[in-house]
Each structure stands twice: as C-alpha cells, then as structure tokens.
Amino acid sequence: MSMPEPVRIGLLGRGTVGGAFAELVAERADAVEAATGRRPEIAGVLTREDGDFAAILERSDVIVELIGGTEPARSYVLEALRGGRPVVTANKQLLAQHGEELFDAAREAGVQLRFEAAVAGVIPIVRVIQESFGVTRIAKVFGIVNGTTNFILTEMAASGASYEEALARAQELGYAEADPTDDVNGADAAAKMAILARLAFHTPVTMDGVSYEGIEQVQPDDLAYAKELGLSLKLLGVAERREKGISVRVFPCFLYGGHPLAPVEGPFNAVMVEAPEITEVTMSGPGAGGVQTASAVLGDTVSILSGDAPVHETREQLPIVTDVASSFYLHLAVADRPGVLAQIAQVLGDKEVSVKSVVQRGAGDDTRLVMVIHECLESRFAEAIEAIEGLDVLRAPPRAIRVIEEEFV
Ligand SMILES: NC(=O)c1ccc[n+]([C@@H]2O[C@H](COP(=O)([O-])OP(=O)(O)OC[C@H]3O[C@@H](n4cnc5c(N)ncnc54)[C@H](OP(=O)(O)O)[C@@H]3O)[C@@H](O)[C@H]2O)c1
To answer: How far is the CA of 329 from the centre of ligand 1 (A)?
Structure first.
C-alpha cells in the first residue's frame, strides 16, 4: 500500500507566529493527517538570515507567509500564487493594501489564498463572513479588532491610569510592541476593517478608504465621567452599508452597559455581524498571541488541504461615504457663572444638535459640562463645536468622543 504524499509547507518568517506555527505543525501532525489524509512537514524556513526563497518555493506544496509588512512579503506571495502554490498569510497590511492584486493572482492560478489570522486573531470571522454569510446581504460588521488598545482602555477605566501609564503596562505584559504607533493611532484596526469590509460588501476597499482615529487623546477624566453616565470606552472598527455606498471607520467610542461589546475587556477582540436575515451574531476571543495566531494559520492550512475556497471576486463598486450620523460625548471646561449652560444649549440648538443628557461637575476654575449629544450628521456637529470654540466661556478646547446610543436590555 502506498503512503499518501506529505504536504510540504514552505515557512516564510519564524518569529513570534512563525516559531509557534512550526511547533504546532509538529505537535498536530497526526491530527492533520487524520483530518486531511496528508501529513504536514516544514519543507524550508526563510528568515532574514537563513534560507533561499526560490529553493523553498521549489520544494513546497503550500507557502505560509509570516514575515509581515508589504515587501518582500508581497513579491513572495505573488510569486508563490503564480507558481501554483496556495498561500496562507496573517499579514493584514499586505491584504489591506494589495488585496485585489493578490486575489486576482490566486484566482488566475486557481489556488487558494487564506488569511484568517490577519483579522481579529483567533476569531474565525473571515471564514464566517465568506462562507456562512457568503450570500447574506450584510448591513454592518463592527467590533473591537485591536487587543492592544482594548487592554489600554480597560486598564485606564479600571485603575484611573493615564494613557501613558496604561501603555507602559501593556508593553510590560507583552500586549503592546516597543513601537505601538500603528496600534494606538488606529492604523492596525483600519487595515483589518478594510479587509472585513471588502469581504462583507464584495466591493474593493483599501486602507485609503478607511478613516481612522486612535486613542492617544483619551484622558482619564473622560473615562471617569463616562462611568457616571454608565458608558464604557472602546476603540471600534465599523463597516456599514449606507444609503449611497459604504462607510468604513475606526474611532474611540462610548458604549452603554448592556451592549454586547461593552464587557469585552483586556486584550480580547470581538466582532459583530448584522443583517436582516441573521439579526446579529457576535464572536469574541483572543486578539493576538503567537500560538493563538499560529492555530488560525494551521486551521487555514487544513482548509486548503480539505477543498475549495471562496473565489474573492468583487460583485459591486460601492462608493465610500464619509459624512455619517453619530452621537457624541462632549466634554467642556467652562467658566463658573450663571447662564453658561443656556449659552451652550443655544449654540447647539441653532445648529439643530440636541442634547440627550448633561452633568455638571466641579466649581470655579474646574467647572465642566459633560454631555451626550443625540445622533446628528458629523459635519453639523463639527460646525456646532466650531461655534462653541468661539464662546468666551470656554476654558479649554472641547473634547468629543462618539457614542453608540443604542441601549440593550
Ligand atoms: N504576533 C502576533 O500576535 C500576531 C497576531 C496576528 C497577526 N500577526 C501577523 O503575523 C505576521 C508575523 O508576525 P510576528 O509577530 O511573528 O513577527 P516577528 O516576530 O517580527 O517575525 C517576523 C519573521 O519574519 C522574518 N523576516 C522579516 N523580514 C524578512 C525578510 N525581509 N526576509 C525574510 N524574512 C524576514 C524575521 O526574520 P528574523 O528571524 O531573521 O528576524 C522573523 O523570523 C505579521 O504579518 C503580523 O502582522 C501577528
């Protein structure tokens, strides 16, 4: 009886994820063989110091790209696909910037390109959107897709720590990298949302189509006031269908207690999908980590061995809409004198911006008004803020953070 051929995996990168992946392949080889009929083996490893890409490609059946960044990862992945090798990658930047080129190459070569680990860590959201909801008219995909910022915000809310202190703690515990820029400024979450929007709406979306803000400006007292209002702060990625297209955004946002994303704390991620026929589905899990990410990569490898993959063709060309309606938390440091609230209410009223709730705190030089503003067009809210900035009662620039008003029971 002849033994089935092993599946030879060419591993590009052996860092946090690549190293864990190599170990997992050895550990789970029996299980992979039982599931697919073929035993996996690492046929070659490329690092900065070792290995030759062409030689590894030559002796591999599947390429696993865990280098990160756009080059040389893009060239290697393209060459592998064009050479008829299926590819698994965890590289969100690569897909968010060059997705169409890679999907086209995969389609033309008739091989699979899988990337579950590129978005929301272990949560199998790519598979669910592509396969379970492949023909569902998805209205909205949103969630917490960056574990570093969720850890920082959780820490600030729990201990009253400043942003800088919470970031230092995240670095100490290995939840933030030495250079955390892309995490804290929202770029990492934006890349993931570009990928999810592309899959959910079947229209090309790149990083350029995503507007994003980070959490660097969040102050401890925003979190303290929010607690009084029953709100918790998350960095949200939101991709949704709009009347005239889609909007894809990343921004810090307050949620009312009872919202399915409100209890997601620490380095965890969570993603929600909404559509009329499915109502809503929420999945949560670890957002990163070597072995966790490696397990998602191995899952993709097994899927490749098991059969056909979705074709990644776009079906529509939807425009990106940027002026959308949002609710806001508004923090104003004001002079402590009669009529200030009325003056501000007047300005907001003139711009047809209405207030849902307001609390006044402190006295004298430390008087603050903290408001929740009902949903209005963001451009209109920006005009109202500009008008408020012109008032002489203001003691510091206004601080505004979006709020999801929906209250769940
Ligand atoms: N870490 C996580 O928790 C996580 C979670 C989700 C997704 N990801 C994604 O997974 C991928 C890998 O991340 P990681 O954390 O494992 O990165 P990492 O620890 O920095 O490892 C990168 C590996 O790639 C190799 N490499 C870098 N540049 C190279 C080049 N020009 N040519 C050949 N090899 C090169 C490095 O070689 P040397 O060993 O010689 O330095 C190293 O082995 C990234 O796309 C990342 O976004 C990571």
So the answer is: 39
Q: Please, how many CA atoms are within 13 Å of residue 11, restricted to the half-sphere of its CB?
A: 25
CB-defined site of ligand 1, < 6 Å:
13-18, 46-49, 66-68, 72, 90-92, 117, 121, 288-290, 293
> Residues, the chain, total?
409
Residue 20 alpha carbon, nearest atom of ligand 1:
16
Give the mutation target among 45, 46, 48 for probing the ligand 1 site: most ligand atoms within 8 A of CB. Answer: 48
Q: Which residue's CA is the nearest one to ligand 1's atom 39?
A: 47
Cα angle vertex 272, ends 296, 185, to 5°?
75
- Render the burial of 363-392: b for 16+ CB within 10 Å, e for the rest: eeeebbbbbbbebbebeebebbbebbeebe
Give the pLDDT confidence of 55-110 residue by residue, as tens digits.
Answer: 999 999 999 999 999 999 999 999 999 999 999 999 999 999 999 999 999 999 99
The whole-number pLDDT of residue 247 equals 97
For residue 245, give the nearest of 314, 321, 316 by alpha carbon: 321
Ligand 1 nearest atom to the CA of residue 292, by list position? 3
What's the 3-state SS for 225-279? HHHHCCEEEEEEEEEEEECCEEEEEEEEEEEECCCCCCCCCCCEEEEEEEECCCE
Whether the per-residue pLDDT at 1 is higher than 60: the answer is no
CA of 12 to the centre of ligand 1 (A): 8
On the question of pLDDT at 312 being above 80, the answer is: no
Give the H or E element holding residue 62: strand 62-65
Active-site hit among 192, 244, 351, 356: 192
Ligand 1 centroid to Cα of residue 13, in Å, is 5
What is the tens place of the pLDDT at every residue in 321-358?
Answer: 988 999 999 999 999 888 899 999 999 999 999 999 89
What pLDDT score does 406 carry? 73
Please confirm, yes or no, whether 192 is among the known catalytic residues: yes
- Per-residue pLDDT averaged across 259-281, rounded? 95
> Is the previous residue joined to 180 through a cis bond, with omega within 30 degrees of 0?
no
- Do 160 and 149 form a contact (C-beta atoms < 8 A)? no
pTM comes to 0.92
Cα–Cα separations (whole angstroms), residue 362 to 38, 98, 227, 339: 68, 51, 16, 16
